[in-house]
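User: Round two. Same drill as before: sequence, then structure, for each protein.

Assistant: Same drill it is. First protein:
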Amino acid sequence: MMRRGMIFRIVRITRAMALQGALALMVALPLSAQRTHVLLVVGLSGAPQFKRSFEAAAQSARSAATNRWGVSDSSLIVLTEDSTRTALSSGRSTRENIAQAFLRLSSRVQPGDVLFVMLMGHGSGEGAQSKVNLPGPDATAAEYASWLAGFSKQHVVFVNAATGSGDFVPVLKAQNRVVVTATKTSNERNESMFLQYFAGALGMDAADADKDGRLSVFEVFRFARTEVGKVYTSSNRMQTEHALVSDSLLASRVAFGKTAASADPRIAGLIATRQALESEVASLRSKKATMTADAYNAELERLLLALAEKTKAIRAAGGGT
């Protein structure tokens, strides 16, 4: 009996070690089998130069979404301060229209998909009452948190690239959610350069650090933060903005763009199989609440080990990650 019990313990330990290895590999895997949905909100500019820079950033993000990420028109909403629709705008960036945009997207975003939200403008406030200036009443960080509550089965990337945005992180931080802010506190209210560099990097090959043809949120964040630092250093000024990311591991996994197809049919087949397994993992996680812990863990272990095997096979065949 003692011998049998020892064997069982060894088996459990071996399985646990294998699962940990699979989980380590999963950290590096992009969530490539998911659809992406985008909401861009441009707040009040207050001056012509800010209006030009905010709209240029929104146009950069919009172009990246349509041309690089493959986001469909029905999954892309751009709200600006203009009272009439323009070539860029889908409507005015009022609090009511933002709430309606989240409601509209909630009918399209499926479990496992990615929702990308980006705010641009002038920020202010403190804690849950932090905000970005809008036409009419401003929406608070607490209100954005309530609108995002309905997307618990998706991966949400929420970027507040406005000045004084840092207090959004503790209010919005949640499981399966990455929160990026241009500043570390609401007190950093000077004109921010993070917006232009982050928006530009969303469609920039130079930000693709691992050269896999896709841009992870963390790659974009790190590129923008580095470029901002260079500007302050080159001009010999004290840096007055410090960008934050709430979850660097998840930010490394959520990636945008179409995976480049391999010319090797064997590698292409392995990548397609891995993407199907990633989709199964996302689907399984959305069902966790309806399953017993043992059934969920057993199925998750099976899928993660299969993913690890496929990743090793892709690397062995010369397909990178």
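Second protein:
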Amino acid sequence: MTLGGVRRAPLTPLARPARLRPGARVAVVSPSGPVPAERMAAGLDILRGWGLDPVPMPHTLDAHRDLDYLAGPDEARARDLQDAWCDPSVDAVICARGGYGAHRMVDLVDWAAMRAAGPKVFVGYSDITVLHEAFALRTGTATLHGPMVGAETFLKDPRTQESLRATLFAPETVRTLGPEEARALVPGRARGITYGGCVSLLAADLGTPHGRTSGRGGLLVVEDTTEDPYRLDRILTQLLRSGALDGVAGVACGSWAGCGPYDKVRAVLADRLGPLGVPVVEELGFGHGPTGLTIPLGVPAVLDAPADGGPATLTLDVPALR
């Protein structure tokens, strides 16, 4: 089946990697922006405290000579990701941070070799959305939209840390996701396959080799940061006009940190997503906010958005990892 055919077909469950066990080797990569060395060191210490063996790849702490918003040249960042994934001694790959740059390196990766290497745990969010989509569409691998080693939220927030730790080691204990704040923006109940991430990155993917042309059968999870309400309107409108949200079964919204007063953000979400006629949940607690829960992508789940004002939830049919 061609890649275009995969994108147009209904979403189906992806291959789930194996859960981690004490002593598992975890490669740390920087596919996007540079990470400060002290934050990297602190994040590695947290992973070691969980009994993992974190190993930074050679270019993880690099910075591009001319473009200081990149963690080294595109080719080096792509090579680190591919080498880590294709190394049979590596059980998981966790990103150091987001920022910008994944779009520049994603097509330099040998995705056929990545697919042949088989599934393993992959974690990140923000700019890493580009790679989540590539892993889904080019390798058929389920991934984790979760905190990164050098991200301040991971370093400072115990709830963020515990959400990832439990997902990695005991995924059956975190089958139901949803903080007390989660509520229905549009009530209803929907079943589908989770996918998505940072909404501006999903829009930037349109027209690329791994951009989706439909959301049929999917539960879309979206969040973003520092996008003014009018920019969120434009991003969502672009996704709607392109047909990328056609057939989506439901939408789960995470945090919108720095995107303006939430009442204005909420109005945009209601205006743009409400006409889809599917359940929409707000404030599910993942993304760039003060707490970033880990959300599995590529797994079947049920989105419950109660009309009575009760807490909304996303419940996985199966654990995120085998």
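The longest strand covers residues 188-198.

User: Perfect.
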